[in-house]
Amino acid sequence: MTSFNLTDLVAMVAAIAAILTLMGYIHRLMKWFDHDREQDAAMKAVKDEQRVLCVALAACLDGLEQLGANHSVTRAKKELINHIQTQAHK
Which residues in 3-24 are b (16+ Cβ under 10 Å) and which e? Predict the structure, then answer.
């Protein structure tokens, strides 16, 4: 039967510490990727909401224009549609 000496014990502790450190880095990397996916999902939800708001605003401006409010309503409607078309082609 062999016995462990102090150098063997130190080597085992160092190996365990290295493995735990590596596992910590892997865990941190996995959390970073998971956070990135969550952020992408949140950005998609914001973009969908903004699209709905732009469509609703365009409809409101169109209705005001049809009711005869022409000066700033017409300009705002043209700018909004121009902005939507510019963003769609990026």
Answer: eeeeeeeeeeeeeeeeeeeeee
Exposed / middle / buried, residue 54 (Cβ in 10 Å: 0-12, 13-18, 19+): middle
Best CA proximity match to 74, nearest among 83, 63, 84, 85: 63
d(CA 62, CA 69): 10
CA quadruple 68, 73, 75, 80: dihedral sign: negative
Would you tell me the crossing angle of helices 71-88 and 6-66 to the nearest 10 degrees?
140
Read off the pLDDT of residues 21-40 as tens digits, 9 standing for 90 and up.
999 999 999 888 888 888 88
| Report field, pTM of the whole predicted structure over 0.70 | no
- Gap between the Cα atoms of 57 and 85, Å rounded: 15
Which whole-number Å values give the CA distances from 9 to 20, 44, 83, in the listed order? 17, 53, 68
